[in-house]
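Person: Please comment on this record:
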Amino acid sequence: MKMDQQFNAILNNYLKDFDQTPISKEQKAMLPIIAFTVQGIPEQIKSHVQVAIDQEINSEKILEVIYQLEPVVGVGKVQAALTVAHQVIPANRQMQRQDNPQFGKEVQAQIYGTEIRNLLADLPDGAGDFVADHLTSHFFGDFYQHETLTVVERELYELMALITLNVDFQIKAHAKGCLKAGNSESLIIWMIINMLPYIGFPLVINSIQKVHAAAQEINN
């Protein structure tokens, strides 16, 4: 694939400024993988997975980050991302799971309570309960009980995915959830700033404001 050399020179010079930002090497490596999976650009993912592996980032963590995007963006984008990720990371692995099958449900209750169930309560024919039940069993139950990522990490990476999607209600709700899970406002904001090359200034500035507002609401 031919690259535009002039654009690449500008981009590479721009990216150097992010090297000194106060997030970890691992966190920085996950961001383009999340962004390009959510955006449905799998051809960009392989090189970033390779960079993460070269930096000795845990391969199981990389895969878990991609797996847990399925309830957010759907199976097609995640399968496309995994297809290229597995060109770098072998596909045969055994997930380490919590012994407690209620773990995801308990995490959801602690961080989010019954917010979604209440929001959808007046839908006809039990539709609201169906969505709420499967949010609990699939989003939280099928993924959060895997031990490779902590709840704190999962909340942080999920928020980056929702910001990439630009879904206002979910960004506000998960900004609070991310803070309640144990992430600091400073870390979240610097993570969003490091998304600049992948999602641009409008989404970053809007999302920083939402996180700051959420932190103020929790602290007041």
In short: The chain is about 70% helix and 0% strand. The first helix runs from residue 5 to 15.
